[in-house]
Amino acid sequence: xxDMSSMPEQEKKAEGKPSAMTRFKNRFGLxxxxxxxxxxVHTLFFLCGFVAVACVLFISAYLVISGLPAxxxxxxxxxxxxxxxxxxxxxxxILPFILTSLAGTAGAILIGVPIGVLTAMFLAKVANNxxxxxxxxxxxxxxGIPSVVYGLVGMMVLVPAIRELFGLxxxxxxxxxxxxxxxxxxxxxxNVAETSLRAVPKxxxxxxxxxxxxxxxxxxxxxLPAARSGVATAIVLGIGRAxxxxxxxxxxxxxxxxxxxxxxxxxxxxxxxxxxxxxxxxVGSLWRDALFSIGLVLFLFIMLxxxxxxxxxxxxxxx
Amino acid sequence: xxxxxxMMMALAMTASLAACGGNGGEESQTPASNDPxxxxxxxxxxxxxxxxxxxxCVGSTSMENVMKTLAEQFGNDNEGVTVNxxxxxxxxxxxxxxxxxxxxxxxSRALDADEEAQGLVGTILALDGIxxxxxxxxxxxxxxxEQIAQIYTGEITNxxxxxxxxxxxxxxxxxxxxxxxxxxxxxxDTEGAxxxxxxxTSTGSVIESVRxxxxxxxxxxxxxxxxDDTIKAxxxxxxxxxxxxxxxxxxxxxxxxxxxxxxxxELSAQAQAFFDWITSTAANDLIAGAGAVPVAE
Lengths: 319, 297
Prior knowledge:
Chain A folds into two domains: 2-74; 80-318, Orthogonal Bundle (MetI-like fold), CATH 1.10.3720. Chain A is built from 15 helices and two strands. Chain A has helices at 2-16, 20-27, 33-74, 76-81, 95-126, 129-144, 147-166, 174-184, 186-198, 202-210, 215-226, 228-244, 247-250, 270-277, 286-318; strands at 85-86, 91-92. In chain A, strands 1-2 form a two-stranded antiparallel sheet. Chain B folds into two domains: 50-127 and 255-294, 3-Layer(aba) Sandwich (D-Maltodextrin-Binding Protein, domain 2), CATH 3.40.190.10; 129-254, Periplasmic binding protein-like II (D-Maltodextrin-Binding Protein, domain 2, 3-Layer(aba) Sandwich). The longest helix of chain B has 33 residues, at 2-34. The chains are: A mainly alpha, B alpha/beta. Chain A binds chain B through residues 86-89, 155-156, 159-160, 163, 168-172, 250-251, 254-256, 266, 268, 275-277, 279-282, and chain B through 61, 87-88, 167-172, 175-178, 192, 196-201, 205, 208-209, 212-213, 215-216.
C-alpha cells in the first residue's frame, strides 16, 4: 500500500527525463520500478518453467535418437517379441523384460490397491484423529524411505523368508519383487485416495445415513463411488511408480532374463535390464544401443500411463 | 533453532566426509613412497626425460579394473602422461596389439600358438583367482572343476549328488558383462550355459546372498573372499584357493591377465615406462588392491 502512493511521483520523474531506459520501459508497458521487478520475476518464472519443458523435450528426443536405430536394426518384432536376451552375444529379445514389468506391476497393484484404498477409507472416514495421525505419519515415513533400503530389507528378510516358506532353492523371484513393489506404491495410493475420499460432499453421506444405511455401507456404496476418479488416479500413480522402480527390485528379483512363467522364477525387469548391463556394454556397440532402446520402450510405457492419468484428472474436474 | 542444528549437523557430516577422503588418499600414497622399489622405479621413469603423451591400452573388460587403478597412479606420478584404458574384450585387445591401434593389448587368457606365430608377445601382469563359495554350514568342502561345471549347467541340481545334505542348489552368479563371470564361465567351460537363479550386480551381493542361503553356491574374486569367515570357499580338486596356490598354478579356477605387445614394434617412451612400471614389484600393491594376484618378484 505504501508503494502505491509513491507510484505517480516516479512516473512524473520518468516523463520529465525521457531516457533510453524510459523508452524501453514504455515499450514494454513498464512504468515503475515495481513493474520492472514484476517483469524480471515473470521472466525468471518463465525460464524456470522452460527448464522443465526443455528437459522433457531433450530427454524424449535423445531417447528416440539413441534408441530407435537399434530397434530398426534388430527388427521391431524381433526386439519386442524375441524371447532371448543375451546382449553380449547378440541376442536382443526383450519380451521377457516387458512381460516381467507388466506382471510385476499388475501383481503390485493387486496387492497394493486393496490395502491402500482400504487404508485411505479408514483414515478418511473411520479412524479417530489420534489413530489417523499415527497412521498418516507412518505412511509419509514409508514414502520417504529410499528405494535401496527397501531392496536391502527385501534381500535380507523377504528373500530368505520366501525361500523357507515355499521350499525353494533361491527366494529371489518375481514374488519377492511384487511384495516389495506393493509396499512401495502404498504411500502414493493412500495419499491420493484419502484426499479424494475426504472431498466427497458431506450431504451425500448424510443422505445415505438418513435413509437408514449403516456407516460402513455408506462408505462402500456412497463415498467410494463418489471418489472413484480420485481412486483411479491413485491406482495409475501406483502403476507409474511400480513400473519405473529399479533399485529395490534389482536386489530381490534374481535378475536373470527368464520369462515370468511362475511367481518363483528369477526375473529381470525393463528397468533392471538397463541398470545391470549399462556398465559393461561398449560405447557404440549394438548392445549399448539396445539398452537405450529398452529405455525408449520404458519411456513409452510411462508416457502412456501419464496420458491415462491426465484423462482421469480431466474427468475428475468435469465431475 | 532446529534449522541451525540441522545445518551444523550437515556441516559436521561434510567435514567428516572430507576428512575420510583425505585419509583415503594418504593411505594409498604412503605404502608406495615407503617401498624403496617404488620410489626407485618412479624416479627412474621421471628423471631421464620428462615423459608426455598418451598411452592406450585396449582389451579385456576383466582387466579394466586393475588397469585403470594402475593408469591412474601412473598419471599421478607422471603429470604429462595420460593412460587410457578401453574395454572391448580379449579378442579386441589382441587385435589392437597386432594392428598397432593400441600401445598395449589386454587379454585375460594366454595367447595361443597362432597369435604367437604372428609375432605377438604376452607378458603376464597378474593372475586372477576365482573362489567358489558356499554357506559355512554346507558340509560339502571340495568339488572338482567338472562338478562345478555340471552344477552350473544344471546337470547336478541337488547337494546330495555331490555328498551334501538334501537340498536344491541355488546358483548365484554375476550379471552378463562382469569380468568375474566371464572368467568363471570360460575356465569352467560353461559360457552361456549357466542356469543361474540369481544374477547379481556386485561381488558384495553375491557374498551376501550366499551367506544368507544354506543351499547357495557362488563365485567371487579371491581377494574379496579371503579372510571372510561368514562364507566358505570350497577347495577345487583338493586345492584351497589362496594367493600361493594361484601363483604356483595348482588352483585350477584361475586365468592370467596378459599384456600383449608386438615383437619388433618399439613402444613409445611413455608406453615403455608404463609397461616397465606395471610389471615391476612397485605395482604389486595396487594390483593386489584391485583384486588380482601380482606375479612380479
